[in-house]
């Protein structure tokens, strides 16, 4: 099967990438390493060629997991990783100082067993370090041949433009789905202006718009959704009603909820990529099949009016996490 392509840093990629975080943390139960490796091989076999990781994911586990696949299939995939969220002895903090970036890149290269990482993101904005200084450091590592391109994650349009004035920014990665519209405030347009690809994580609303959550109260206490406002008792009843209506539209159109969610995100701009995560091979295949679907614009309009920043109940992050996010926000 041939797929449409969209570019990042001049590289033609399947716009349906694979977010690898859920293989190492965040969503429970986690797969075994052997099962995760099988899923990664299956993903590449069927056409995924954009694999997204980070130093943070599993505290190095995710990059080590990818190394098991990359040792034989490096040339088949575009790989990304991220630095900027440091961790030690149970503590996390943001650090994008030049020396920290260099140390993190070397760790990523060693852990993944590669000589070059196609795209390296600054995972969060370090407000104590000028963004130009951080970006300039990664730019130096591009010159050294260790990095292919620079990305930013969860940063604002203003920050993107400041960074792009220092060095070309190949991609901006932020949360974007029907129920998280923040990039529409300014970042999507800023990406167009700076020739930056936009990479949407959590495009199926952390599983809520993929039939993945029926009762948040039954989530594992370690599951990140168990602490997010939209899945709380206070907000879930209202959100579940929206989800039920959305699922009915998907069923009417002969689509899975995940496919309708993903198709809507991809339809918002030809510079947009999606990186849904999954630990299930059937879901992996279902997501990819989205690219073969044809959906009328009227359907996208219908679901856009149903689920948006005005109708969803609760913020996407708890208050403590919101302080570390640079992206524009709705009141």
Ordered list of secondary-structure elements with their pairings:
Blueprint: E1 6-8, E2 11-13, E3 18-19, H1 33-46, E4 50-52, H2 61-73, E5 78-83, E6 85-88, E7 91-94, H3 98-112, E8 119-122, H4 131-143, E9 150-153, H5 157-166, E10 169-175, H6 187-193, E11 197-201, H7 233-252, H8 257-266, E12 272-274, H9 281-288, H10 297-306, H11 319-322
Parallel strand pairs: 3-4, 4-5, 5-8, 8-9, 9-10, 10-11, 11-12
Antiparallel strand pairs: 1-2, 6-7
Helix pairs in contact: 1-2, 1-9, 4-5, 5-6
In short:
This protein has helices at residues 33-46, 61-73, 98-112, 131-143, 157-166, 187-193, 233-252, 257-266, 281-288, 297-306, 319-322, and strands at residues 6-8, 11-13, 18-19, 50-52, 78-83, 85-88, 91-94, 119-122, 150-153, 169-175, 197-201, 272-274. With 331 residues, the chain is of the alpha/beta class. The protein has a domain at 13-207 and 259-293: Alpha-Beta Barrel (TIM Barrel).
Describe this structure in words.
- By secondary structure, the protein is of the alpha/beta class.
- α6 links the parallel β10 (169-175) and β11 (197-201).
- The protein has eleven helices and twelve strands.
- It is globular and about 55 Å long.
- It starts with 5 loop residues before the first strand and ends in a 9-residue tail after the last helix.
- The chain has helices spanning 33-46, 61-73, 98-112, 131-143, 157-166, 187-193, 233-252, 257-266, 281-288, 297-306, 319-322; strands at residues 6-8, 11-13, 18-19, 50-52, 78-83, 85-88, 91-94, 119-122, 150-153, 169-175, 197-201, 272-274.
- α1 runs parallel beside α9 (281-288).
- An eight-stranded parallel sheet has the order 3-4-5-8-9-10-11-12. Strands 1-2 form a two-stranded antiparallel ribbon. A two-stranded antiparallel ribbon has the order 6-7.
- The chain has a domain at 13-207 and 259-293: TIM Barrel, CATH 3.20.20.
- The mean pLDDT is 97.
- Keywords: Oxidoreductase.
- One of its GO terms (molecular function) is oxidoreductase activity.
- Pfam families: Aldo_ket_red (PF00248).
- It comes from Litorimonas cladophorae.
- InterPro entries: AKR, Aldo-Keto_reductase, NAD(P)_OxRdtase_dom_sf, NADP_OxRdtase_dom.
